Every structure is written in C-alpha cells, then in structure tokens.
C-alpha cells in the first residue's frame, strides 16, 4: 500500500508512434507519485480495435522505459488490479452498462452511421455544434426489445441532464463550470461490445483505485461526462488535473505535421533520455536561471503540483539541444559517453543491419561512412540542388513526396515488406513506374542517389525519422519549384 494512498496512472493508446506529449503527461504523474509517496500505474487503453496494434503497444512500453520511467503495475509486470490492457478487460464493462440501463441513466441507440452523419451535417449547416439529437431516447422498452430481436445494431449512450451545469474544481484550472446542454450523449458501449474511452476510463480508474487523474487539457471538456458516470454509479470521483498542451514556438499545437513528435525520433537522433526528461520536467517547476540542469531526483524535489502554469508548454527544440549538449558534456564520464554512443548506434539493430547491407557494396572499409553514414546522421542537410540530377521534373518530385508522406502513415507494421508493398501500391495509384517514385526517395532518405537498398534503409531508420526526412525533402524541392 502507498504511504499516502495516492495512485496515479498514465493510460496511452497504442495507435501510433509514442508521442513526446505522452512522456510529458507520464512524467508529471511519475513526479506526482514520487512527491506524495504514491504509486505510478501504466494502463494500455486499446478500445480502438481498428488502430491499436501489439507493435505500437511494445513501442509505447519501450519508449517510456527509455525515458527512465518505472511503474508499479502494468501490462508487462501485472499487479493486484489487472489486467492492465483494456481489451483484456472487455467482459468487465457490460455489467456496468446494464446497471446504467436498469437505473435509467443510459439508453440503447439504433441510429445508423448514415443517419448520424446526416444529423451532424444539418447541425453544422445550422451553425450548431454537432451532437446526438436524442431520437432513440423516446423508444419504449417493447420497441427496444423488438428491434434487438430483429438483429438491429445497437450502441449504449448515456443520458445527460437538460438543465444547469456541471461545476467542479480542477487541480490546475480551479473552479470550472460547463453547461449540460453543451455535453453530448456519449456512446458508452460500441456495437462490437467494446467500451468507449469515457466508459472504460471511469470504470478502470475506479477499480484500480486511482486517486488523481492528470492528463492533457484537451480532456477538460470531457470531465462532465466522467463526473456524471461517477455519480450514476455512486462512486467517489478522483481529483482532476488538466495540464496545458505542449505547443510549438508559434503557439500552435504540437503536431507531427509540423515538427517531430515521436519519442523514437529523439532517441534515434541521439538525444539522451535524461536530457529529454530534464527538458519536460522544467514545465512543472519554478527555478532560477542557471539551475536548469536537473536529474530526475532533483526534479522530484523541486516539483510543486500546487504551483502549475496554465500557459502553454513551449516545445523549444533549441533549448532541448542546449540541455542535451550540457548533459553529454557535463554529466557523462568519458566511459559513460563511449558506452552511450555504442548503445545508441546499436539501437534497433541500426548499425548491425547497416553493416550487413553494406558488406557486399564496398571494396574498402573507408567507403562505409559515405555509403551508410546516413543511418547515424541527425540531419542530412538536404538542398534543392540534391534533387537536380533526378530525371523527373521538380513538380513531379514534389507530387511524389507529398503523396508518399501521408500514405506511409497507413502502414500498421513498419518493416521491409510492408514498406515495399505500400510504395508499389502508391506507384500504381499514381500511374507511375516504381523507379520513378523511389528515385527521389533515395535522396530524401539517404541524401544520395547511391545508397543502401531503399526499403531496408527506411525500415532501419524507423517511421518517425523517415517522416521527418520526407518532410524536409519536400521543403527543399518546393524551393526548387518556386525558383522556376
């Protein structure tokens, strides 16, 4: 049992590359638990069965471990309140849904996706925020039974008060009031029997005895739904704390479309985890100039959850670079530095795989840096002139790069076979020969038209690094197009 009774959790969804925003929220919870002598829990929220994959779950766990975060309970180590993966907890949720139906706090909805989309379009056209219009609220018990017996698809929605507001105190924002008429009649159980985030989140937090829920401010508007569920079940609600979103320097939301956001990207480029955690931890503490270089223990000592800023946390890459450089120079011994370099080069078999591919393509070992050095570079320094030797005109190269970038995001499992299959499919969709599509990709990924095999190189570099290199390549080619 904890010394304080405090239990907090991080609950990422395994639907993509682990985001630095996940590390940011996880670090806050970790520091909060340490500050209060509590326990930090990891739970995997994979209710989105179409996008969640075992590969992404492994990446989430590996990324958070790389960050230096340790959890007391989780899907990899178990614990007294498991399972810690929501898909494994599926049988637990239906009885609670039935309880809400029996108490009259929820209702069955038979509206088809087509009908719901028509409803939303009409609401948007009328200048109203789209939300469920309550059509199935008026169905009688007999009608519900009959339609279910006929095999109609049904979901379970929660009922929302029609008057007044939901008033609560947030640990960061203070007193908050949200009118009930702005809250949607949320789906709680989907047609496949899986709970939505809102339903599973509340039930799991209750069963796992979570005392404080700290998450991003984007969830603030969902609090009324969660509070209502706690009230419907007659449970004590946790303390809610909503942290300011991480933002770019221009105050826009941190997004992979603008800047690299994957933890794996920063790991691949040679940032060290202590520096990244140091950088993120500075958002939660007050320090004087000159005190920026802090270990996890020092962050924990200075951590003050009662004095958090509502201002956006600016992800300043230059400051991260500065901190990372200081950590390398000031915190690592010569032996530690050498060990870190070797460990980084071997990460995800990057160096080993690169050497294997290089062996049949060189006549002297001294040729290795030019041939395979791109696998270890943080920046290729691409210029518009790098694409000048490609036979395709700049406009076609830019079209290829802008098409390939989003299409590669569709790949669930990132490996040589899936990358090749997707690029061949892209070539077919664009009506181009494969060699026309891959020619600019060689330059974009390796910085050279003579390199290691493209599909293998992309697999070794990883999705997040390839994404950024394609984006920078597109910027370089766009300059070439603009200069014509």
From TrEMBL:
<feature type="short sequence motif" description="'KMSKS' region">
    <location>
        <begin position="253"/>
        <end position="257"/>
    </location>
</feature>
<keyword id="KW-0436">Ligase</keyword>
<keyword id="KW-0030">Aminoacyl-tRNA synthetase</keyword>
<dbReference type="InterPro" id="IPR004527">
    <property type="entry name" value="Glu-tRNA-ligase_bac/mito"/>
</dbReference>
<dbReference type="InterPro" id="IPR045462">
    <property type="entry name" value="aa-tRNA-synth_I_cd-bd"/>
</dbReference>
<dbReference type="InterPro" id="IPR000924">
    <property type="entry name" value="Glu/Gln-tRNA-synth"/>
</dbReference>
<feature type="short sequence motif" description="'HIGH' region">
    <location>
        <begin position="12"/>
        <end position="22"/>
    </location>
</feature>
<dbReference type="InterPro" id="IPR033910">
    <property type="entry name" value="GluRS_core"/>
</dbReference>
<dbReference type="InterPro" id="IPR049940">
    <property type="entry name" value="GluQ/Sye"/>
</dbReference>
<dbReference type="Pfam" id="PF00749">
    <property type="entry name" value="tRNA-synt_1c"/>
</dbReference>
<comment type="function">
    <text>Catalyzes the attachment of glutamate to tRNA(Glu) in a two-step reaction: glutamate is first activated by ATP to form Glu-AMP and then transferred to the acceptor end of tRNA(Glu).</text>
</comment>
<dbReference type="InterPro" id="IPR020751">
    <property type="entry name" value="aa-tRNA-synth_I_codon-bd_sub2"/>
</dbReference>
<dbReference type="GO" id="GO:0000049">
    <property type="term" value="F:tRNA binding"/>
</dbReference>
<dbReference type="InterPro" id="IPR014729">
    <property type="entry name" value="Rossmann-like_a/b/a_fold"/>
</dbReference>
<comment type="similarity">
    <text>Belongs to the class-I aminoacyl-tRNA synthetase family. Glutamate--tRNA ligase type 1 subfamily.</text>
</comment>
<dbReference type="GO" id="GO:0006424">
    <property type="term" value="P:glutamyl-tRNA aminoacylation"/>
</dbReference>
<dbReference type="InterPro" id="IPR020058">
    <property type="entry name" value="Glu/Gln-tRNA-synth_Ib_cat-dom"/>
</dbReference>
<dbReference type="GO" id="GO:0008270">
    <property type="term" value="F:zinc ion binding"/>
</dbReference>
<dbReference type="GO" id="GO:0005829">
    <property type="term" value="C:cytosol"/>
</dbReference>
<feature type="binding site">
    <location>
        <position position="256"/>
    </location>
    <ligand>
        <name>ATP</name>
    </ligand>
</feature>
<protein>
    <recommendedName>
        <fullName>Glutamate--tRNA ligase</fullName>
        <ecNumber>6.1.1.17</ecNumber>
    </recommendedName>
</protein>
<keyword id="KW-0067">ATP-binding</keyword>
<dbReference type="InterPro" id="IPR008925">
    <property type="entry name" value="aa_tRNA-synth_I_cd-bd_sf"/>
</dbReference>
<feature type="domain" description="Aminoacyl-tRNA synthetase class I anticodon-binding">
    <location>
        <begin position="337"/>
        <end position="473"/>
    </location>
</feature>
<dbReference type="InterPro" id="IPR001412">
    <property type="entry name" value="aa-tRNA-synth_I_CS"/>
</dbReference>
<keyword id="KW-0547">Nucleotide-binding</keyword>
<keyword id="KW-0963">Cytoplasm</keyword>
<comment type="subunit">
    <text>Monomer.</text>
</comment>
<keyword id="KW-0648">Protein biosynthesis</keyword>
<feature type="domain" description="Glutamyl/glutaminyl-tRNA synthetase class Ib catalytic">
    <location>
        <begin position="6"/>
        <end position="322"/>
    </location>
</feature>
<dbReference type="Pfam" id="PF19269">
    <property type="entry name" value="Anticodon_2"/>
</dbReference>
<dbReference type="GO" id="GO:0005524">
    <property type="term" value="F:ATP binding"/>
</dbReference>
<dbReference type="GO" id="GO:0004818">
    <property type="term" value="F:glutamate-tRNA ligase activity"/>
</dbReference>
């Amino acid at each position: 049992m904890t010394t304080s009774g405090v239990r907090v959790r991080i609950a990422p969804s395994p639907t993509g590359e682990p985001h630095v925003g996940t590390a940011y929220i996880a670090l806050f919870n970790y520091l909060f638990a340490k500050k209060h002598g509590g326990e930090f829990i990891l739970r995997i929220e994979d209710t989105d069965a179409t996008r969640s994959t075992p590969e992404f779950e492994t990446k989430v766990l590996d990324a958070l471990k790389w960050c230096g975060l340790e959890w007391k309970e989780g899907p990899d180590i178990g614990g007294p309140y498991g399972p810690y993966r929501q898909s494994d907890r599926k049988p637990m949720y239906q009885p609670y849904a039935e309880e809400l139906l029996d108490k009259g706090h929820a209702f069955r909805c038979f509206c088809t996706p087509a009908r719901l989309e028509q409803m939303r379009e009409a609401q948007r056209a009328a200048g109203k925020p789209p939300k469920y219009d309550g059509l199935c609220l008026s169905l009688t018990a007999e009608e519900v039974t009959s339609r279910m017996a006929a095999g109609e698809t049904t979901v379970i929605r929660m009922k929302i008060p029609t008057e007044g507001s939901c008033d609560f105190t947030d640990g960061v924002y203070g007193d908050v009031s949200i009118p009930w008429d702005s809250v949607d009649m949320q789906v709680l159980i989907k047609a496949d029997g899986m709970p939505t985030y809102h339903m599973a989140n509340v039930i799991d937090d209750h069963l796992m005895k979570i005392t404080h829920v700290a998450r991003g401010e984007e969830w603030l508007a969902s609090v009324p739904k969660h509070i209502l569920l706690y009230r419907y079940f007659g449970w004590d609600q946790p303390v809610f704390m909503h942290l300011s979103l991480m933002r770019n320097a221009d105050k826009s939301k941190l997004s992979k479309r603008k800047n690299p956001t994957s933890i794996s990207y920063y790991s691949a480029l040679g940032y060290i985890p202590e520096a990244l955690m140091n950088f993120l931890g500075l958002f939660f503490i007050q320090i004087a100039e000159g005190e920026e270089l802090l270990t996890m223990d020092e962050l924990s000592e200075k951590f003050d959850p009662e004095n958090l800023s509502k201002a956006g946390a600016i992800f300043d890459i230059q400051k991260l670079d500065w901190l990372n450089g200081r950590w390398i120079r000031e915190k690592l011994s010569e032996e530690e530095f050498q060990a870190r370099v070797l460990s980084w080069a071997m990460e995800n078999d990057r160096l080993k795989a690169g050497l294997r591919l290089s062996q049949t393509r060189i006549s002297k070992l001294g040729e290795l840096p030019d041939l395979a050095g791109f696998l270890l570079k943080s920046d290729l320094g691409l210029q518009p002139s790098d694409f000048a030797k490609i036979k395709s005109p700049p406009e076609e190269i830019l079209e290829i790069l802008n098409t390939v970038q989003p299409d590669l995001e569709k790949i669930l499992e990132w490996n040589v076979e899936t990358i090749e299959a997707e690029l061949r499919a892209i070539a077919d969709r664009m009506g181009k020969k494969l060699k026309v599509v891959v020619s600019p990709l060689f330059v974009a990924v390796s910085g050279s038209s003579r390199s290691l095999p493209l599909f293998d190189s992309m697999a070794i570099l990883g999705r997040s690094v390839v994404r950024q290199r394609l984006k920078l390549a597109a910027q370089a080619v766009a300059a070439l197009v603009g200069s014509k």
